[in-house]
């Protein structure tokens, strides 16, 4: 996509979407960002900075309602659909996550198809890839793998991302005019655009705060925010990404491993590195929904192969440790309470 285009970017207040907005504007494109409430427009303007603000506009859209979608698609060349809920804790009713994720994705695709907008890039997740019993003997999960929503490790978020992406591919198959690509990132680290960062950096904040005396043995496929945004832009520009899933992961680190890395960088912090026994986590999960949501992942071996995305990105992924370090530097600069070691 060499010439300037108008891109509808849904969920522009999101952690990933703000970086995408900035990169689109820097590339000379026009960005029409969707908001649930226009009261957050100034937040986005401040995050992306002064350059290109004359090419940034906003529309009010709701994933669960039809009004506004037709008008939002007017004059649009492509859609980047990033809007989807990503909570730290799991809801009591999993449909509170699944319904808006699936309905919102289909609502965006229907509106695009009706308006003659063919190019769509959907932000999915490795969560839609890595929950099945398929890979064995140490084989890594790849873009060919799909999560089984009935898998013992699949939680509400996992199901929401899997079902939303499945619905998108089914829609694209039924409507050949839609040229779909998905980007499937792991836990997104790196320097955020502002203090409204997402759940992934919340994990870093939790480690640095010293809140937990022990940590779950949880595998985390890690990718830098800059790489996730760059893959979205590359997907728009490269026609051979149509019909593909682009995994985004620089490698898997386990939660205690991340903590040990941060402890070496910040010895002044009281950072726990001990591994919590699973029987203890089962007990804590009765009272803490954030633990309950990841219990099925604890102790699970995991490898993710995102090498097929490297040629699209045009460079190697930022190393996982670099993304974690950048996250920690930002979090510490913005007010995590200090606890001496």
Question: How would you describe what is shown here?
Answer:
The longest helix has 21 residues, at 95-115. The model has no long low-confidence stretch (mean pLDDT 90). Helix 1 links the parallel strand 1 (6-10) and strand 2. It is globular, with a radius of gyration of 20 Å. It is an alpha/beta fold and 341 residues long. The N and C termini lie far apart (51 Å). It has a single domain (6-333), classed as Rossmann fold, CATH 3.40.50.720. It has helices spanning 15-26, 41-48, 69-72, 95-115, 156-174, 199-209, 225-237, 255-265, 278-285, 289-292, 310-313, 320-333; strands spanning 6-10, 30-35, 56-60, 78-81, 119-123, 179-185, 187-189, 219-224, 245-248, 251-254. The chain has a seven-stranded parallel sheet with strand order 3-2-1-4-5-6-9, with helices on both faces. The chain has a three-stranded mixed sheet with strand order 7-8-10. Helix 4 (95-115) runs parallel beside helix 5 (156-174) and helix 6 (199-209) packs across helix 12. It comes from Histidinibacterium lentulum. InterPro entries: Epimerase_deHydtase, NAD(P)-bd_dom_sf, NAD(P)_dehydrat-like. GO terms for molecular function: oxidoreductase activity, acting on the CH-OH group of donors, NAD or NADP as acceptor. This is NAD-dependent epimerase/dehydratase family protein. Residues 7-239 form the NAD-dependent epimerase/dehydratase domain.
CATH architecture: 3-Layer(aba) Sandwich
* Termini Cα gap: 51 Å
Please tell me how large the radius of gyration is. Answer: 20 Å
Biggest sheet architecture:
7 strands, parallel
Uncertain spans, ≥5 residues at pLDDT below 50?
none
- Across the major sheet, the strand order is 3-2-1-4-5-6-9
Domain NAD-dependent epimerase/dehydratase: 7-239
Keywords: Oxidoreductase
GO molecular function, one term: oxidoreductase activity, acting on the CH-OH group of donors, NAD or NADP as acceptor
Pfam families: Epimerase (PF01370)
């Amino acid at each position: 996509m060499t010439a300037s285009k108008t891109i509808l970017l849904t969920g522009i207040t999101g952690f990933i979407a703000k970086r995408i907005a900035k990169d689109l504007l820097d590339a000379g494109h026009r960005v029409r960002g969707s908001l649930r409430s226009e009261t957050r427009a100034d937040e986005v303007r401040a995050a992306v900075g002064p350059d290109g603000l004359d090419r940034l506009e906003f529309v009010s859209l709701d994933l669960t309602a039809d009004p506004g979608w037709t008008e939002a698609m007017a004059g649009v060349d492509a859609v980047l659909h990033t809007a989807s809920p990503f909570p730290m804790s799991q809801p009591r009713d999993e449909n509170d996550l699944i319904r808006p994720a699936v309905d919102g994705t289909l609502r965006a695709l229907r509106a695009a198809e009706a308006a003659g907008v063919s190019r769509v890039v959907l932000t999915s997740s490795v969560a839609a890839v890595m929950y099945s019993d398929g890979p064995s003997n140490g084989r890594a999960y790849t873009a060919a793998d799909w999560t089984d929503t009935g898998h013992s490790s699949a939680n509400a978020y996992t199901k929401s991302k899997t079902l939303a992406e499945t619905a998108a591919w089914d829609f694209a198959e039924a409507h050949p005019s839609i040229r779909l690509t998905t980007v499937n990132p792991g836990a997104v680290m790196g320097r955020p655009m502002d203090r409204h960062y997402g759940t992934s950096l919340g994990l870093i904040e939790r480690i640095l705060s010293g809140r937990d005396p022990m940590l779950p043995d949880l595998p985390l496929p890690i990718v830098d925010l800059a790489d996730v945004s760059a893959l979205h832009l590359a997907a728009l520009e490269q026609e051979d990404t149509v019909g593909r899933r682009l995994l985004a992961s620089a490698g898997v680190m386990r939660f205690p491993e991340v903590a040990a890395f941060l402890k070496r960088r910040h010895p002044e912090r009281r950072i726990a590195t001990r591994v919590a026994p699973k029987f203890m986590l089962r007990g804590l999960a009765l009272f803490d929904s954030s633990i309950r949501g990841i219990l099925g992942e604890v102790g699970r071996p995991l490898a993710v192969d995102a090498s097929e995305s490297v040629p699209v990105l045009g460079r190697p992924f930022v190393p996982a440790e670099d993304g974690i370090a950048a996250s920690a530097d930002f979090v510490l600069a913005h007010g995590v309470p200090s606890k001496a070691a």
